[in-house]
Amino acid sequence: MIKVIVNGCLGKMGKVLTKSICDDKAFELVAGVSKEINETTGYNAYSNILEIKEKADVIIDFSNPTTLKDMLDYSKKTKTPLVIATTGYTNEELSMIDEHSKEVAVFHSSNMSLGVNLMLKLVEISAKALSNFDIEIIEKHHNKKVDAPSGTALMLANEIQAVLDNEFNFGRHGKNAKRKENEIGIHAVRGGTIVGDHSVIFAGKDEIVELNHIALSKEIFAQGSLQAAKFIVNKQNGYYNMKDIVSL
Fold this sequence. Notes:
The protein is an alpha/beta fold. It is built from six helices and twelve strands. The protein has helices at residues 12-23, 68-78, 91-100, 114-129, 151-164, 219-232; strands at 2-7, 27-33, 45-46, 58-61, 82-84, 106-108, 134-141, 167-170, 183-190, 196-204, 207-215, 239-240. The strands form two sheets. A seven-stranded parallel beta sheet has the order 3-2-1-4-5-6-12, sandwiched between helices. Strand 4, helix 2 and strand 5 form a beta-alpha-beta unit. Helix 1 crosses helix 6 and helix 4 packs parallel to helix 5. The longest helix is centred in the middle third of the chain and has 16 residues, at 114-129. The mean pLDDT is 94.
C-alpha cells in the first residue's frame, strides 16, 4: 500500500483526489495539507506541510505556487518523492523544482490526463507536417481558475515551439494586431464550470486542421496523478513527466 500526503487537500482538485485515494486499495491517505482547515476531514489535516509527522511514500501536489518552498523543504528533509500537478509557476520556481529533482525523485506535469499527453504528440507531428500553417491555441476553464494561460496550453505551445521556434502571442488585441507570420496565438476563456477544453488550430489556405481535448470531469486528473505516484515511488532521483509513463 502506497502512503500518500495530499498538498492542497481541500481545494476542488484536492477533494477529488482524496476521494480517489480512499476508494483505491493500493493507496493510503496519511495526511493532507491546506492553508485553511475549515471543515472536518476523515484524515489528519495540517495548515503547513512542515507540521506533518506521518511518514509517506509520496506527496501529490494540487495546490498553489505559494506552497512550493515549504513542500520542497519537507520533501528534501524526509526524502519523499513528489508528484507535482500545480500550474502557474514562474521560471524561477520551475528552476527550483528542477534543482530539487537532483536530490529527490520528482514527477511534474501541468496536465495528468492520458488524452492530453497523446494530444501533445499529435501536436508535434502536426507542427512538422503543417509548418507553413497559422497556429492558434484556445483554452477554456471554469471561472475560478487563477492562472492564464493554462499550464496545458503552455505545454502545447512549447511542443510546437520546439519544432518551429515560433514566438508566442498572448491574447491578441488592439487596432494594430495583425497576425505575424511566425507566431503561436494563445487565448484563454474563463466561464462557468468548464473543467478543461484545449484546441490547437492549424489554419492553412482553404483548409483547417484542429486538435481538441475536452475534460468532462476532474477524475481523469486524479487517476493520472495516482498512476504517476505508482511510477515515481521507487524511482531514483531525477525529473520525470508523463512521457515517461505514456508510450507514444
